[in-house]
Amino acid sequence: MKFTVVEEGIRTDLELDLPVIRIGRSLENDLRLANTRVSRHHSRIEAQNGQAWIIDLGSANGTSVNGEKVDRKLLSPGDEIGICGVKILIPDESTESAELTVGEDAIGMRTLSGEAKRERENLRVFAKITRELVKETELLPLLRLIVDSAVALVGGERGFVLLIDRARHPEAGATPDVNDMTVNVARSFDHSDIVVPRSRLSMGIAGKVVKGRKPVLSLDAAQDDRFDGMASVEDLRLRSVMCLPIEADGRIEGVLYVDNRLQFGAFNEGDLELVELFAGQAAIAIRNAHHVAELRERNHRLQESRRQIERLNERLGRKVRDQGSELAVVRAELGRERGRYDYTAIVGASDAMRTIFQKLDRIIECDLSVLIHGESGTGKELIAKAIHYNGARKEKAFVTENCAALPDTLLESELFGHAKGAFTGAYKSKKGLLEQADGGTLFLDEIGDMSPEMQKKLLRVLQEGEFRVLGSDRIVKVDVRVLAASHRDLEEMVREGTFREDLYYRMAVLAVNLPGLRERRDDVPLLAEHLLARAAREAGREAPILAHDVMATLVSHDWPGNVRELENEMRRLVVLARDEVRLEHLSDAVREGRSASGKSLGGAPLAQSGDIKTAVADLEKRSIEAALAQAGGNKSKASQALGISRFALQRKLEKYGLIKKRDKAAGEE
Asked: What does the DSSP assignment read for 115-155?
């Protein structure tokens, strides 16, 4: 049967005297096509009773006749069979000698056969492969293309590429060890990957090529004397083998290995010469792919460095901003006379806090017991720490215990310690907090919740400076300064008989009364900025800006939970707000001016102004007027109700011009 094959502009006239002509990419086909889209067994032509039929064999991309996709069709002279861009023409006797037009180009007709046809086909395929190699810059797809192309170029069964590890062999000119090479790609003629590739080729032959830097061609590897003693040759039943180095600029990049276990003498010297040329092109392409990969990696590192610099700049900007906020707090505090000692842990610049700091200056210089009274969240422990760390005992231990958190039995054990076996569970002796604080300070928080029996035992320690360890006759003498705190009114408890009078007077030698946050509203802006910056720093975020209306709302709130409540509010704002805190970000209790229980705090409304100082001044003025009115004009009683000294009240009366108003009112009466 005569027919003409046109593939990529090349026309070949063939005549096959066979009843069945098999068409496909596999080696056993009668008409073998190189196009990778063609299936291994694509279709066949059957001649029956002087007629020819084209039958598609379930191919992936189908078979067409005269542009129409078919499964089975009777062929007529002049029909055109289409298989993945390849045209198979059934000649018409009337036009057999005419020229054939392919696409838009007229190509002269001539018949190629034998070596001439093979040489023309090889050059065409080689040119096509070279174009594809130049396009591909990704290493793994490039290696697959190299192997598939080499196998197709010489009609091999399998192909392998082994590459050096550039990290271990960075220098050019050195001969690498084949055992250090990696089988990067292993492919079969049908473009499928080969599993466990290193065990599927002869590493001995590859090593011979690397060591000698010369290609190896064997027509029958099993009978080749050069491979005597290579167990892999016999184990793999190798026949036709072609192996050659991939080398560029005097550097071996790897090895290209092609074999055919099904045929003897499948490759010849011409094939080797062609694949050598191909290997040279492949080496250049591999080197370019490595360069592109290095450039991409370098570009990735540069981008990552840029992102890291941006993150560092952002973090630095946040720190500068936080430090700016903290500096503003410090400047505001330094604007008022705070005291001789370091109270930087306590934020406050109001008159009430200035009075506290001045009192602490005198308390620190002595060694007497101190009773700190204040509502929950006012910072009683901070005051205790300020007394300890600014005093003569600062080099010794500062020990704390919450008396409300433990029952009597555990509290006694914690304070006085116990001997081994003193009670069930006392598996070993334990040193008490009083003994641990020897030479230092013991801070007892919520002492008002201590039972009368424990009050009696603590009183003995304060009087005698000694105690007996629980479960033992051992008497321990200690030198401890005891600081106590309570949110309860201990004087009232003494009158009710629930707190020992002698212990109260022993503890309250010196007393510090901490005002609630609503009594020192001047400090709210400073505290809010300080606590917001600290919360943002702990969360690793940038501190948002507190808008004027937000700050005014914060100042107007009575803060029943005091500084602790304000701190929790600032932590919420760091999470909820981004660049600026708005009113909707505030909790309902703060925004609506009520406590957490839902009870209205009933504070006087602030001036509806964006100026915080004006709002605070307005609130102070109203509070003073209300306190004086309730005290019947008695300044001493009014100052006590306001939690400030009489001198401070007098200064505020002068500051806000309330003296003139009161004098005028008295004159009118």
From this structure: HHHHHHHHHHHHHHHHHHHHH--SHHHHHHHHHHHHHHHHT
Mean pLDDT across the chain, nearest whole number?
Answer: 81
Q: Which of 299, 441, 478, 268 is nearest to 364 (CA)?
A: 441
Confidence bin at 399 (pLDDT 50/70/90): very high
- Rounded CA-CA distance 257/76 in Å is 45
Shared domain check, 271 and 126: yes
User: Rounded to whole angstroms, how far apart are CA atoms 516 and 505?
Assistant: 24
| Cα angle 93-94-100, degrees, rounded to a multiple of 5 | 90
In which domain, by residue range, is 645 found? Answer: 606-669
Do 368 and 432 belong to one domain?
A: yes
Question: Which H or E element spans position 282?
Answer: helix 269-334
Retrieve residue 123's tokens.
């050059």
Write the pLDDT tens digit of every residue in 609-648: 445 667 677 777 777 877 776 677 788 888 877 777 787 8
How far apart, in whole angstroms, are the C-alpha atoms of residue 39 and residue 339? Answer: 93
Greatest mean pLDDT among 59-68, 135-144, 255-264: 59-68
Q: Which helix (H) or strand (E) holds 668?
A: helix 658-668
**Dihedral angle at the C-alpha atoms of 96, 98, 102, 107, nearest 10 degrees?**
120
Q: What is the pLDDT of residues 352-386, one digit of tens each?
A: 888 888 899 999 989 999 999 998 889 999 999 99
Instruction: Based on the fold, state whether residues 501 and 363 are members of the same structural domain.
Output: yes
Confidence of residue 280 (pLDDT cuts 50, 70, 90): confident
Are 469 and 432 in contact by the 8 Å Cβ rule? The answer is yes
- Res 421: pLDDT: 77
Number of domains forming the structure of the chain: 5
Q: Tell me the range of 146-160, 225-239, 415-429, 482-496 where mean pLDDT is highest.
A: 482-496
Chain-centre distance of CA 374, in angstroms?
Answer: 44
Query: Which of 10-19, 257-266, 635-644 has the highest mean predicted lDDT (pLDDT)?
Result: 257-266
The neighbour count for residue 259, using CB atoms within 10 Å, is: 26
Choose the final residue of a domain: 111, 137, 163. 111
Burial readout 625-644 (b: 16 or more C-beta within 10 A, e: otherwise): bebbeebeeebeebbebbbb
Residue 585 within any structural domain of the chain: yes
- List CB contacts of 372: < 8 A, sequence separation 6 or more: 380, 383, 384, 483, 484, 485, 486, 511, 512, 514
DSSP letters along 496-513, please? Answer: HTSS-HHHHHHHTTEEEE
Q: Strand 80-83 to strand 105-107: parallel, antiparallel, or no bridges (unpaired)?
A: unpaired
CA distance 312 to 298: 21
Instruction: Tell me the pLDDT band of 329, cut-offs 50, 70 and 90.
Output: low
Task: Give the containing element (helix H, strand E) for 662.
Answer: helix 658-668
CATH number for the domain that contains residue 588: 1.10.8.60
Instruction: Name the pTM for this structure.
Output: 0.45
Higher-scoring residue by pLDDT: 643, 110: 643
Residues 414/400, Cβ–Cβ less than 8 Å: no
Give the distance between the most distant pair of CA atoms in the chain.
140
* Better pLDDT: 424 or 392: 392
**Residue 215 near residue 276, CB atoms below 8 Å:** yes
Q: Which residues pair with 15 in a beta bridge?
A: 2
